[in-house]
Amino acid sequence: MYSDKVMEHFTNPRNVGEIPDADGIGEVGNARCGDIMKMWIKVENNIITDIKFKTFGCGAAIATSSMITELAIGKTVEEAEKITNRDVAEALEGLPPVKMHCSNLAAEALGAAIADYRKRTASTA
Q1: Exposed/middle/buried for residue 53 (C-beta within 10 Å: 0-12, 13-18, 19+)
Q2: Beta-carbon count within 10 A of 78 CB
Q3: pTM of the predicted model, to two decimals?
Q4: Among 8, 59, 95, 120, which one has the highest count of C-beta atoms within 10 angstroms of its own C-beta?
Q5: What distance in Å separates the CA atoms of residue 68 and residue 63, rounded to the nearest whole number?
Q6: From CA 70, how far away is CA 104, in angstroms rounded?
Q7: What positions carry a catalytic annotation?
Q8: Cα within 13 Å of Cα(105), Cβ side
Q9: pLDDT (tens digit, 9 = 90+) per residue, 13-45?
Q10: How far are the Cα atoms of 18, 31, 32, 80, 121 from residue 15, in angstroms, in the given order?
């Protein structure tokens, strides 16, 4: 049902935790399945230098959160903003159709953190 890559990111998720002095924080959830994702980003010179997440949900939700952090770190804010749910699913070597909404949540959480970062930097500019 799940690819080896999904199972690897579920059992050994990358970048779990919080960033106390984050430049952007995003939180999203899906009321129907109960998954909640919170993501923190640190940005220096327009590059995402650190990213952490906490996810309360199923194995696919944890795996997609882990994978999107791996895809986003080291990218410019604009490059990270273009990461789609399909990019996440492909990097995980596929997701069952019933779990594709998890990749949507991961992309939305990153997008929310970037939006928060932009809001914060706009108010200090």
Answers
A1: buried
A2: 9
A3: 0.94
A4: 95
A5: 9
A6: 16
A7: 33, 102
A8: 30
A9: 999 999 999 999 999 998 778 899 999 999 999
A10: 9, 25, 26, 16, 24
